[in-house]
Write the structure tokens for this entry.
Amino acid sequence: MIDHPIEPVFDCNSRVLILGSFPSVKSREEHFFYGHPQNRFWKVIAAVMEQEVPRSIAEKKSLLLSSGIALWDVIASCEITGSSDSSIRNVVPNDLSCILDQCDIRAIYINGKTALKYYDRHLRGQTGRDAICLPSTSPANAGWSAERLCEAWRVIRLDFSNTK
């Protein structure tokens, strides 16, 4: 079993929660979300929020928090081969109450279908909330161009601006 090594990012101003599945090998090495340079998450979030693409962990946290975004993953620990979502087994979910009890989260978004599968299986009952699945920013989702991803992910900005 591999334990999730990254703490969630949120503060009392977080209104939107984005959940991935489980950190990649590169993210676990870098001790922060979406650490693989080919993952488009940071480029997409920056474009959606009309900000510069963050480089450092501090800049990434700042972008999220200044945008009202909380970030974590569905899975607390699992068996996984490398970074392959299809190899995930024996899932133990994260307890989202540490975020949901402290923040006025108005919408939950899921980064990709794998995360949605585990959210539906393990967390929907805990939260009692539906989540909106967005197309994965992973390089494995090559069918989605950066432009299409940004277009799909813009719903976050629209949702957030409607919840202030």
